[in-house]
Write a structure and sequence with these properties.
Elements lengths: L10 E3 L17 H14 L4 E4 L22 E2 L2 E4 L5 E3 L4 E9 L6 E10 L2 E8 L14 E2 L4 E4 L12 E7 L12 E2 L4 H7 L4 H4 L2
Parallel strand pairs: 1-2
Antiparallel strand pairs: 2-4, 3-12, 4-11, 5-10, 6-7, 6-9, 7-8, 8-11
Length: about 210
Amino acid sequence: MLDADIPLADYTSLDLSDTNTDLASLDITDPNICQTYIDGVLIRNNARVAYGGYLEKRNLYSDKASFSGEEARNIHLGTDFWAEAGTRVLVPLTGTIHSFQNNAMVGDYGPTIILEHRLEDQIFFSLYGHLSLDSLQGLHLGKRFLAGEGLASLGTPDINVNYAPHLHFQLILDLQGKMGDYPGVCNANTMDFYANNCPDPKLLLGY
């Protein structure tokens, strides 16, 4: 998913769930504290990229108004790849630009790209969030990217709207008419629908 110069041996799994006792005393909603924790995981595992989070229940969104309410949205629908800002994002499967935009509200994705993929008679989509602003330059609907080609780069916390640098990668079967955006976090009441509509990325990536 990221820069081809980073070997798979330099990836390590990361647990940001609300059951991780290492996070109990940390305010991971603060991007600096979150980054410090992730850096510790990377150092302990001699890694450069930390990944994980599909259907993970997190406290990461507890400070964000758009995620709170009677039924809080705190279940993560994609896989995150945590790495340095500026790291290149690669296309895992040939596709075309479906839509893109800067979702700049705090807690959202920041710059976001959605690709459309066709495998035989199946159409589905992949979403890339928390990108740099430069990632949106030169794009147009229908632009084709081949598997392994560079698509974007990771944004900084001020651009990716208050998160430590990372890629949010999500598969989506039905965009429900949305353009440049799609929910990446849901609540317990809607989890069954979104789990069906947003399959586990490991089905594509094979980790």
